[in-house]
Amino acid sequence: MINDYFNEFDTIVNNTERIVSSSVNKRKINDFLGIIEGQLVFDNGILDILEVVTVNHPKVEKSKYKYHFRDLENVMMFRYDNAPHHIHLASYPHHKHIGNTIDESMEPDIFQVINEVVNLK
Description:
By secondary structure, this protein is an alpha+beta fold. It has one domain. It is built from 2 helices and 7 strands. It has a 7-stranded antiparallel beta sheet, with helices on one face. A hairpin with a 4-residue loop joins β4 and β5. It is globular and about 40 Å long.
């Protein structure tokens, strides 16, 4: 089950033309639990990734995630995470940092985040 999720991740990374290189570790804890951690280097910046994932088909649950995208000049463009420190947001603990602002956000999946990076100019 977690292997299927890892395979889906690899497929989208390998089929995304704007990804120049990747350095990602995928650790299988057991058949249902795994961790993805590392960087995807795009032609427009770097995406740091952390996911702690439990897969119970068809449901995928992330107990922890962070998707931090910075441009080629190392300026943060956005970050999604579920760190429990913005309790005033209706989407708590999920939120998105854009510059110095923090917005409500639903929990994205890695595939949505990669598409967001690809669509940035």
